[in-house]
Amino acid sequence: FQRVYDCLDIQIIERGESFYQDRMTRVVKEFEENGLVQLDEGRKIVFVPDHSIPLTVVKSDGGYTYDTSDLAALHQRLFEEKADIIIYVTDSGQSTHFQMIFAAGQMIGWYNPQVTRVEHAGFGVVLGEDKKKFKTRSGDTVRLMDLLEEGLKRSMDKLKEKERDKVRQPASLRAERFPNCC
């Protein structure tokens, strides 16, 4: 992954779920103190505006859920990282989940969407040449680095077709667009 991150000039701070464990406890407490938690068959749930299904912040066995960890991550990014733009990039199937997480963050007063941009950028499924969904576990998927290299090759071919390579050297064009690639 680091080769891809370097190519795209991305710096990643990796944090596992354990990083948010203490923060999850504090988030649940904050929702409770604001009177936003309801008990339902041993679960602690939070209803957000415009959604009939609640977030489950504590399971009946006392454990946390993705709802809790995503709320804790949102809180950490807003208050510790002081982020003013947060974009979650996941598959479109997670859209409703993130709408609810963001609605909960607004409801409790963590951020104002007029000031802080928090959004989900969903993507669909990636299909192979056979028009079937890629299955990452099968190992038959195209590697992102291969896609980047193919995109770079195609863009260079297009520049040559338009004779832009006569104005600028391909190496300078490549360095400008992907300074850390290939």
UniProtKB/TrEMBL annotation:
The entry's keywords: Aminoacyl-tRNA synthetase, ATP-binding, Ligase, Nucleotide-binding, Protein biosynthesis
GO MF annotations, alphabetized: ligase activity
Domain Arginyl-tRNA synthetase catalytic core as annotated: residue spans: 2-170
InterPro entries assigned to the protein according to its UniProt record, in alphabetical order: Arg-tRNA-ligase, ArgRS_core, Rossmann-like_a/b/a_fold
Top-rank lineage group of the source organism: Eukaryota
Keyword Aminoacyl-tRNA synthetase tagged: yes
UniProt record similarity statement: Belongs to the class-I aminoacyl-tRNA synthetase family.
The name this protein goes by in its record: Arginine--tRNA ligase, cytoplasmic
Organism annotation: Ilyodon furcidens
Gene: RARS1_3
